[in-house]
Design a protein that fits this description.
nine-stranded antiparallel β-sheet, single chain, 28% strand, alpha+beta, 213 residues, Umud Fragment, subunit A
Length: 213
Amino acid sequence: MSRRPLGCLYETVEALILALIIFLALQTFVAQPYCIQQESMEHTLEPGQCVLIDKLTPHFATYTRGDIVVFNPPPAWDRQSGGIPYIKRVIGVGGDTVAIRGGAVYVNGVQLAEAYLYAEGGQPGPTEPQTGDHWSVPSGQLFVMGDHRAVSADSRAFGTVPIGYFVGRAWLRYLPLGTSGSSGTRATRSSPHPHHRPEPPWPPRERTARTAA
């Protein structure tokens, strides 16, 4: 083999290794793909849709109410998820008081206008308490709930979640084709996924986001 083909081979291998290193660095520190396998964020995020998780900006800008976030479940719930993160919406941040009264959610005494809630027959269902109906959110923790409250296991059941458990914000929806765009904080109604299966009543075995291949 001549030196020139051998040199081209080395260059190709080096380029592939460099590309792999860059990909792994981006996925570890910047953005990571996730595919939704749960129903608790309908209709904002449907089963079968995939999103990119922004892992970078939470280091510089704190999580805020309305953010859609991916986090590792508390230890007592980790067995149900198989160690796979949950995906929910931030309802309360450190220092907030969250309460559920008459099927509505109040933060610091003010009722939330939750246009993103899962609606059936044109009307969103009430938010029901699970193990409590009011919470004080400690500094450095978040109170989270799913948009489809009837099937979501969330802070109503396991309480507030420490910031250190969070992976990042859901940033960009990219699959399936035709649903791409920012996940945002407002619901975007879409057709049910063909493999959609209803979850059992709470407390469900949470179907969680998995890392895309």
